[in-house]
Every structure is written in structure tokens, then in C-alpha cells.
Design a protein that fits this description.
Elements (H helix, E strand, L loop, with lengths): L1 E5 L19 E5 L5 H11 L3 E4 L6 H4 L3 H21 L4 E7 L20 H6 L4 E4 L6 E4 L18 H20 L3 E6 L1 E3 L8 H10 L4 E4 L5 E6 H14 L5 E4 L4 E3 H13 L4 H5 L2 E4 L14 H4 L9 H15 L21
Parallel strand pairs: 1-2, 3-4, 4-7, 7-11, 8-10, 9-13
Antiparallel strand pairs: 5-6, 10-12
Protein name: dTDP-D-glucose 4,6-dehydratase isoform X3
Keywords: Lyase, NAD
InterPro entries: dTDP_Gluc_deHydtase (IPR005888), NAD(P)-bd_dom (IPR016040), NAD(P)-bd_dom_sf (IPR036291)
Length: about 350
């Protein structure tokens, strides 16, 4: 029996569960991981033996204005859950963390080239890493090869409230292994995209904006890069960790596929607006103020989970086309979806 515990917060939609809601081996329960009494009763009643802990506040932009709520849900809620799971003697507890706990990779050596660039030339140089300088027209180029890649032993150096809360929660989870040898496993994954994702995240947000004839809003220079994994690949990674992951271990779930936010916007414009004209593509981009901190990139080494037999399989071209088509038909799965398309986080009501 698979039990899905969800608070049904602002970013949730029961429509996303319609295809499985009638399965005999599936049960949905609405509840809050921060309610310690409820969580303990749930473990006692349902006889749960394995936990995959995905529940969290995850929108980085929102974390800057609601940092205490992120701390409460992500840290306190995780402590409540792992404590109850330990009391119930579950067989395995998998905590789903993020690549952002490592902080941005800046590297230790780079070459500097200060020059004035058009947006087109910036786009062409995205095969290298680009670090914005104080002047918006000065770009620092740094070869990716000289930059640090994170493995599971790399120190945690989070730079935003979301990442900090996830890093702190990791410490609580890991402490149950160190103190009790309680069988916990921690995963840190790259950015996940695909159907069913609330459109506050960058890929569904850009897709939905363009499908509603609105411009992609890019924070700052847009030269920051992210690694993107298709949802189906990440599901396979979690199943691999569930079956083969060793207690007390951490596994990076990463991909070598990396793209700048500017390049992402332009690729989606090409696919949705069917144009390859640089000037026409610029008409669909709007540069706005950057978030307080915006890490350059999160390159990870994933050889450890590769050793368990997992590697990503879905190519970008296939995954992004499936995602675009899904949002064309299902954007209104959320009653408040339009609010997610604003350039800056619209604070949902406190619940």
C-alpha cells in the first residue's frame, strides 16, 4: 500500500492524482508533517515501514520573504517526521534534499575578460560559464573545466533560506543514523521538470507565460545555469535508492545537461512561438531585478548512484516537448495558477 500524505498547500492540486486515485494499493491522506500528534497516530494506524520524505516549502524566491515558515516546515517538520519514523522502527527513511545545499560553484581559477556584449553575443558565449560583474555590460568568463564539482562529501554552504532549511534538515536526519543507526538515506538532486509541477518553477513558468502570450521574466542577467532532470528519470532514481541505497549514505542525483536561464528562455520561445529570429526572440524576454542571491551553478558528480545502476535516460528534446504539451492542456489544474506567473513571488496566504 502506498500512502500519499500531503498538506494540500497553495501549490497542490488533487487533479494531478486523478489517474491513480482509484488504485487499490494507493491511499491519499491530507495532513501536515508539522503536526506531531497527527504524524505519530498515522504511523501507528497505517503500519508504515518505508518513508520517502518529499514534503517541503521549495520555492527559492518565496523563501526570501517567508524564511521563518521555510525553517518551520522544512526543519521542524522533518524533525517531527524522522522522530516518528524512528519510534515506529521503519525499515528505511529517504530524505529528499537538493543540490542547492552545496551553494554556488565559483571555482578557484578563472580568466577575466571585461567587454561590452550584445545579447546575441552573450547567447553565443553560453558554452562557457558567465559570472555577472557589477556593471551589467561587463561579463566575467570562467571555463567550466576550472570550476568545482560537488560530490557527496563536499561541504554544505547554502546561500538562500530554502537551501539553508534543507541543509539544516539534513543534519537532523543524519543525526538519527549517527546516534541510533536508524536507516536513513539522503538524496540531493538537480532541478526537476516535467508535467504536474506548479508553474512557479522556471520551466513551467516560462512555458505557461509564452502559452499565454506573455514574456519570459528573467531575474538579473539570466546567465546562471541549471542542470535539468526529467521527472520520470528522477522517479527511477528514487526507486533505485529505495531498493539499493545503503543506510547512512548520501546520493547525488545529477545530470550533465546544463543550460543558462537565458538559453532556456530562447529555446522555449523557439519551440512555442516557432521563431529563430534573434530580434523576435528578444521581444519575448523581459529582464527584471535579480533575487537577493542567485547562485551561478550547481555542478554535481553522480558516480555514486551510477554505481547502483541509475543514469538519466530521457533526452532534453523529448522531455521538454512532453512538458510543453502537458501545460497546454492542464495549466488550470490549479485555481491560482495565474499568480505563479508574476515576475516575483506572490505570497500565498499563511495556513
Amino acid at each position: 500500500m502506498i500512502i500519499n500524505l500531503d498538506k494540500l498547500d497553495y501549490c497542490a492540486s488533487l487533479k494531478n492524482l486523478e489517474t491513480i486515485s482509484n488504485k487499490q494499493n494507493y491511499k491519499f491522506i491530507q495532513g501536515d508533517i508539522c503536526d506531531a500528534h497527527f504524524v505519530r497516530q498515522l504511523f501507528e494506524k497505517e503500519k508504515i515501514n518505508i518513508v520517502l520524505h518529499f514534503a517541503a516549502q521549495t520555492h527559492v524566491d518565496l523563501s526570501f520573504v517567508r524564511a521563518f515558515e521555510f525553517t518551520y516546515v522544512n526543519v521542524y517538520g522533518t524533525h517531527v517526521l524522522v522522530s516518528a519514523a524512528h519510534e515506529a522502527s521503519v525499515e528505511k527513511f529517504i530524505y529528499v534534499s537538493t543540490d542547492e545545499v552545496y551553494g554556488g560553484s565559483l571555482g578557484k581559477a578563472y580568466r577575466r575578460a571585461e567587454c561590452t556584449l550584445t545579447d546575441e553575443r552573450r547567447h553565443n558565449r553560453l558554452q562557457h560559464s558567465c559570472l555577472p560583474c557589477p556593471s551589467s555590460q561587463q561579463i566575467m568568463f570562467c571555463s567550466f573545466e576550472c570550476q568545482e564539482e560537488f560530490d557527496e562529501s563536499s561541504p554544505k554552504q547554502p546561500t538562500n533560506p530554502y537551501a539553508s532549511s534543507k541543509a539544516a534538515a539534513e543534519c537532523f536526519v543524519q543525526s538519527y543514523w549517527e546516534r541510533y543507526k536508524f536507516p536513513v538515506v539522503i538524496t540531493r538532486s538537480s532541478n526537476v521538470y516535467g508535467p504536474h509541477q506548479y508553474p512557479e518553477k522556471v520551466i513551467p513558468k516560462f512555458i505557461s507565460l509564452l502559452q499565454h502570450n506573455r514574456k519570459c521574466c528573467i531575474h538579473g542577467s539570466g546567465l546562471q545555469t541549471r542542470n535539468f532532470l526529467y521527472a520520470a528519470d528522477v522517479v527511477e532514481a528514487f526507486l533505485t535508492v529505495l531498493k539499493k541505497g545503503k543506510p547512512g549514505e548520501i546520493y547525488n542525483i545529477g545530470t550533465n545537461f546544463e543550460m543558462s536561464i537565458v538559453q532556456l528562455a530562447k529555446e522555449l520561445i523557439q519551440l512555442i512561438k516557432e521563431t529563430t529570429s534573434e530580434s523576435e526572440m528578444e521581444d519575448w524576454v523581459d529582464y527584471v531585478n535579480d533575487r537577493p542571491t542567485n547562485d551561478l551553478r550547481y555542478p554535481m558528480k553522480s558516480e555514486k548512484i551510477h554505481g547502483l545502476g541509475w543514469k538519466p535516460k530521457v533526452p532534453w528534446n523529448e522531455g521538454i516537448k512532453k512538458t510543453i504539451e502537458w501545460y497546454r492542456e492542464n495549466f488550470h489544474n490549479w485555481k491560482n495558477a495565474e499568480k505563479a506567473l508574476e515576475p516575483f513571488a506572490v505570497q500565498p496566504p499563511c495556513i
